[in-house]
Design a protein that fits this description.
The protein is of the alpha/beta class. It folds into two domains: 21-263, Rossmann fold (3-Layer(aba) Sandwich); 272-328, no CATH class. The protein has helices at residues 28-39, 55-67, 97-113, 158-175, 195-215, 225-232, 248-262, 265-282, 291-310, 317-328; strands at residues 21-26, 43-46, 77-79, 82-84, 120-125, 129-133, 139-140, 151-155, 180-185, 220-222. The strands form three sheets. A five-stranded parallel beta sheet has the order 2-1-5-9-10, sandwiched between helices. Strands 7-6-8 form a three-stranded antiparallel beta sheet, with no helix packed on it. Helix 1 links the parallel strand 1 (21-26) and strand 2. The longest helix is centred in the middle third of the chain and has 21 residues, at 195-215. The protein is globular and about 65 Å long.
Length: 329
């Protein structure tokens, strides 16, 4: 007897390898999966603008990264004793304009350096609702708690999203023909929009991605994170206390389904060995100064050296530093 609806994953999803260069942009799902990919030693750039929710802000960010934009003082605005960028999350904001610019341009330079070497772009749409600045007419990525009277709130149409991304992807794929684009829709509900308006928003995003798949069948793919949470895990025990965001258990489950369908077989083996190293480092010894523990740390270093010998692009700098500090202690 079945007690839940099983979500079948598409059979043709791209298989990610540790040698690939990845970039993730978008809603909290991109941040959650991106963090797990980084922990698994994939080469990822995760949300260089911070969390982004709507498709137009994500596409604007991609165009700026592609073009190597450098932010200047007139790209910022001052509000509540801080300098902000309407394109960036509040993590980039600061009391000094120069600090804000340094944070923004540092991340932009880092993202731009490897952008044209990307193998896979993972994009998570959160909502089709946008806020347009009344003075500039541009869609903002973040209102930074400015009064709603500063903005016009509206919902994007399917055609608007498809037109924007058809133009964007046509240009990107002409320059990076090997690149795959994996779309997801965030399962996080935007309850402030109202439940019906949230459903309309998610449906708009789903229809837009479906049309993009039809337009770019060799390059655009869809991973059903939204369906996994709403259909397979359709129970409030899989949500956090706010009853909106997925719980840690739900995130781990979606990650497991993601690895089953989107990670290459060789990469799964590397992930297992990397996880063993992480667990060994997490081990708390009874006698950290003992020779036995130092030999144990030496074994970890040997494992790291062996993996790096086979896969030189794996980044074990943090683990090496931990071993070095503990061996000197």
């Amino acid at each position: 007897m079945d007690f839940y609806t099983f979500v079948e994953l598409p059979p043709d999803l791209p298989k990610l390898a540790h040698a690939d260069r990845l970039m993730l942009l978008g809603s909290c799902f991109a941040a959650n999966i991106g963090m797990k990919l980084v922990e698994a030693k994939f080469r990822c750039d995760v949300n260089p603008y911070g969390i982004l929710y709507n498709p137009l802000s994500i596409s604007a960010a991609l165009r700026e990264i592609d073009g190597g934009k450098e932010y200047r003082p007139d790209d910022l605005f001052f509000f509540r004793e801080c300098w902000h960028s309407p394109m960036h999350h509040g993590d980039f904001s600061s009391c000094e304009a120069e600090d804000t610019l340094q944070r923004i341009n540092g991340r932009l330079k880092e993202a731009h350096e490897h952008f044209h070497q990307l193998d896979c772009l993972l994009v998570t749409f959160g909502t089709a609702w946008v806020y347009e600045n009344k003075n500039t007419g541009t869609v903002v990525a973040n209102c930074h708690k400015q009064p709603e009277s500063y903005f016009i709130r509206r919902m994007l149409s399917v055609n608007e999203i498809v037109s924007d991304y058809t133009s964007l992807l046509s240009g990107l794929l002409a320059r990076i023909p090997r690149m795959k684009v994996l779309f997801t829709i965030s399962p996080i509900r935007h309850v402030r929009d109202g439940m019906h308006a949230n459903q309309l928003s998610k449906a708009t995003l789903l229809l837009a991605v479906n049309q993009l798949q039809a337009t770019f069948p060799e390059h655009v793919f869809y991973f059903p994170a939204y369906e996994l949470l709403l259909d397979e895990l359709r129970d409030y025990r899989f949500y956090a206390e706010d009853m909106v965001h997925p719980s840690e258990t739900a995130i781990r489950y979606v990650w497991e389904r993601f690895t089953q369908s989107c990670i290459a077989a060789d990469a799964l083996q590397i992930m297992e060995e990397s996880e063993n190293i992480r667990k060994m480092l997490a081990h708390k010894p009874f006698h950290p100064d003992s020779e036995e523990y130092k030999r144990f740390l030496g074994q970890i270093v040997l494992k790291i050296n062996r993996l790096n010998g086979k896969y030189p692009y794996l980044d074990f700098q943090k683990e090496r530093e931990i071993c070095r500090i503990r061996l000197k202690a």
